């Protein structure tokens, strides 16, 4: 009997759904025994402060990487948008899987969309990317922080603290909560985060056998689109405390990328935007497209939007 392949995962309902999906897919496709190792991360414990202020989304992946390092687990399944642009030494992203709906969802018990909200309405989100794009459309809105897993955020909405909240459509759909989506944002109005809706599978760089196996499972269109999106962010400094959106879509064999950057210190400052397209066939081409989008944002003045180095 082979020793089981172990997947390290956070224990939120969404993280478990994603890890179980990877487990079931690997068992069915390769006949491997696969088990889950659930763990609580620092990011799950800190609920009272914006993540951008306490160390960023990396807080969700660190404990999982420690489990890989110590050999307690072999792969870690993440929402790709929570994976830092630069992985620590010794780790690799072995695969990116097909994404769910990458759009942001407008969730409200009373209003159909952001334009229908009354003057000064309270909208819950702790994502700087969402804040700057909401304010670009509705500068009158009062944005309030909203943390916690999806169920917690929905409960806070239902308790009446907000007129509306904004969540990733992907998470709601995966958890069977699509009925809570009142409307999806046009990705040109609310550009999604790099990697939103996609799964990323991380392994130790030295685990060649597992890397080769996982390379057979990656979803090439999602993989290339997400590499382009992540290159924009990496090229601009890669911090999640930066209000940056980057989203790439395929039009035939052409990859088109949209990106927008706001100023974390002046949330109503006009956003810098760029749109670029190129025929892309490999990872290097995808990264080049993302780097070019970042270069255009720099040329448009991104330097003054970014925190001083
Ligand atoms: N930042 C938290 C997070 N990380 C991944 C998702 C779910 C969607 C996805 O896979 O991108 C969410 C929830 C949200 O943003 O509403």
TrEMBL record:
<feature type="domain" description="Porphobilinogen deaminase C-terminal">
    <location>
        <begin position="223"/>
        <end position="298"/>
    </location>
</feature>
<dbReference type="GO" id="GO:0004418">
    <property type="term" value="F:hydroxymethylbilane synthase activity"/>
</dbReference>
<dbReference type="Pfam" id="PF01379">
    <property type="entry name" value="Porphobil_deam"/>
</dbReference>
<comment type="pathway">
    <text>Porphyrin-containing compound metabolism; protoporphyrin-IX biosynthesis; coproporphyrinogen-III from 5-aminolevulinate: step 2/4.</text>
</comment>
<feature type="domain" description="Porphobilinogen deaminase N-terminal">
    <location>
        <begin position="6"/>
        <end position="211"/>
    </location>
</feature>
<dbReference type="InterPro" id="IPR022418">
    <property type="entry name" value="Porphobilinogen_deaminase_C"/>
</dbReference>
<keyword id="KW-0808">Transferase</keyword>
<dbReference type="GO" id="GO:0005737">
    <property type="term" value="C:cytoplasm"/>
</dbReference>
<dbReference type="InterPro" id="IPR036803">
    <property type="entry name" value="Porphobilinogen_deaminase_C_sf"/>
</dbReference>
<dbReference type="GO" id="GO:0006782">
    <property type="term" value="P:protoporphyrinogen IX biosynthetic process"/>
</dbReference>
<dbReference type="InterPro" id="IPR022417">
    <property type="entry name" value="Porphobilin_deaminase_N"/>
</dbReference>
<comment type="subunit">
    <text>Monomer.</text>
</comment>
<dbReference type="InterPro" id="IPR000860">
    <property type="entry name" value="HemC"/>
</dbReference>
<dbReference type="Pfam" id="PF03900">
    <property type="entry name" value="Porphobil_deamC"/>
</dbReference>
<protein>
    <recommendedName>
        <fullName>Porphobilinogen deaminase</fullName>
        <ecNumber>2.5.1.61</ecNumber>
    </recommendedName>
</protein>
<comment type="function">
    <text>Tetrapolymerization of the monopyrrole PBG into the hydroxymethylbilane pre-uroporphyrinogen in several discrete steps.</text>
</comment>
<keyword id="KW-0627">Porphyrin biosynthesis</keyword>
<feature type="modified residue" description="S-(dipyrrolylmethanemethyl)cysteine">
    <location>
        <position position="240"/>
    </location>
</feature>
<comment type="similarity">
    <text>Belongs to the HMBS family.</text>
</comment>
């Amino acid at each position: 009997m082979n020793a089981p392949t172990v997947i390290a995962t956070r224990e939120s309902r969404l993280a478990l759904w994603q890890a179980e999906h990877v487990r079931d897919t690997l068992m069915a496709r390769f006949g491997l025994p696969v088990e889950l190792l659930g763990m609580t991360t620092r990011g799950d414990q800190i609920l009272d402060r914006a993540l951008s202020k306490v160390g960023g989304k990396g807080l969700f992946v660190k404990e999982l990487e420690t489990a890989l390092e110590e050999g307690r687990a072999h792969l870690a399944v993440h929402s790709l948008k929570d994976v830092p642009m630069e992985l620590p030494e010794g780790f690799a992203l072995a695969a990116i899987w097909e994404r769910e709906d990458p759009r942001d969802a407008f969730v409200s018990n009373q209003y159909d969309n952001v334009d229908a909200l009354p003057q000064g309405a309270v909208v819950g989100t702790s994502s700087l990317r969402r804040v700057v794009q909401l304010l670009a459309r509705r500068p009158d809105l009062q944005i309030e922080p909203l943390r916690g897993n999806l169920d917690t955020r929905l409960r806070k909405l239902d308790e009446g603290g907000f007129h509306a909240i904004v969540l990733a459509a992907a998470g709601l759909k995966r958890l069977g909560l699509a009925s809570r989506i009142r409307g999806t944002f046009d990705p040109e109005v609310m550009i999604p985060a790099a990697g939103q809706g996609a799964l990323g599978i991380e392994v130790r760089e030295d685990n060649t056998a597992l890397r080769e196996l996982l390379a057979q499972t990656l979803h090439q269109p999602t993989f290339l689109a997400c590499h382009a999106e992540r290159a924009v962010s990496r090229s601009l400094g890669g911090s999640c405390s930066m209000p940056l959106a980057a989203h790439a879509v395929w039009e035939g064999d052409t990859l088109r990328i949209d990106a927008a950057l706001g100023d974390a210190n002046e949330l109503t400052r006009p956003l810098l935007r760029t749109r670029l397209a190129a025929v892309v066939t490999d990872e290097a081409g995808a990264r080049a497209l993302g780097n070019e989008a970042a270069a255009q944002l720099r040329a448009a003045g991104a330097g003054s939007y970014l925190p001083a180095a």
